[in-house]
């Protein structure tokens, strides 16, 4: 968890709320992930889940009402916001149960799919936003949908496509893109060693 490690649940919730107010969505996502990871061992699980759900719903409302509609002419921002929508429904899917979980998982997958299609049509395979989307969408398949085959297929395609276009990678995006490519590779190695699915030979 990096800098999130060692922080209490209350500190993480406060950090997520401050990040939301400042529109620092990457920081907020990191805090949300850390909170979700703490839920299993939490004595006040229901309270934490309620706080997590409230924050996610606030962000999703902001995305649907303002951010996504105003990004129609900006493909990078639109894909980024759609990815965020998928991410926050995925966070809800980690704590929701029964029918509620089925609905938020469906919403997460739909947002990721739209973002993935638009990224494929409008962004180079080496773009860090497109790679980050592929990373998160593959994690969704592996952790939320329990579909390791689809997770590996998506991650491998994103990695292979980016490798093929590496010469076209913009210098200012090199660090971010190659870092995400390494994360894709690491996940593939882990997933294919744990599951009997097609993928990397490592």
Would you spell out the secondary-structure blueprint of this structure?
Elements: H1 9-21, H2 25-38, H3 45-67, H4 75-95, H5 98-122, H6 128-144, H7 148-164, H8 174-194
Computed structural class = mainly alpha
Q: In angstroms, what separates the terminal alpha carbons?
A: 26 Å
Q: Helical element count?
A: 8
Query: What percent of residues adopt helix (DSSP H or I)?
Result: over 70%
Reading the helices and strands in chain order gives: HHHHHHHH
Count of extended strands: 0
| CATH topology tier name of the largest domain | Delta-Endotoxin, domain 1
Pfam families: 14-3-3
Family: Belongs to the 14-3-3 family.
Protein name: Ftt-2
Domain 14-3-3: 9-202
Structural overview:
It is a single chain. With 202 residues, this protein is mainly α. It has two domains: 9-42; 45-196, Up-down Bundle (Delta-Endotoxin, domain 1). Helix content is 75%, strand content 0%. It contains eight helices and no strands. It has helices at residues 9-21, 25-38, 45-67, 75-95, 98-122, 128-144, 148-164, 174-194. Helix 4 runs parallel beside helix 6 (128-144) and helix 6 packs parallel to helix 8. The radius of gyration is 17 Å and the shape is globular. Residues 1-6 and 197-202 have low confidence and may be disordered.
Supply database-style keywords.
202 residues, mainly alpha, Delta-Endotoxin, domain 1, 2 domains, globular, disordered N terminus, disordered C terminus, 14-3-3_CS, 14-3-3_domain, 14-3-3_dom_sf, Ftt-2
């Amino acid at each position: 968890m990096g800098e999130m490690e060692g922080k209490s649940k209350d500190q993480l919730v406060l950090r997520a709320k401050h990040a939301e107010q400042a529109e620092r969505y990457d920081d907020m996502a990191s805090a949300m992930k850390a909170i979700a990871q703490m839920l299993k061992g939490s004595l006040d699980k229901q309270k934490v889940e309620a706080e997590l759900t409230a924050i996610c719903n606030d962000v999703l409302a902001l995305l649907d009402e303002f951010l996504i509609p105003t990004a129609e002419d900006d493909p990078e921002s639109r894909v980024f916001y759609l990815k965020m929508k998928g991410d926050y429904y995925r966070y809800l899917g980690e704590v929701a149960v029964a029918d509620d979980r089925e609905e938020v998982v469906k919403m997460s997958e739909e947002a990721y799919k739209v973002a993935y299609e638009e990224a494929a049509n409008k962004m180079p395979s080496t773009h860090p936003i497109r790679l980050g989307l592929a990373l998160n969408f593959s994690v969704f398949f592996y952790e939320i949908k329990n579909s390791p085959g689809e997770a590996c297929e998506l991650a491998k395609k994103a990695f292979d496509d980016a490798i093929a276009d590496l010469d076209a990678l913009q210098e200012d995006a090199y660090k971010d893109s190659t870092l995400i490519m390494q994360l894709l590779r690491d996940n593939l190695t882990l997933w294919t060693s744990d599951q009997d699915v097609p993928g990397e030979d490592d």
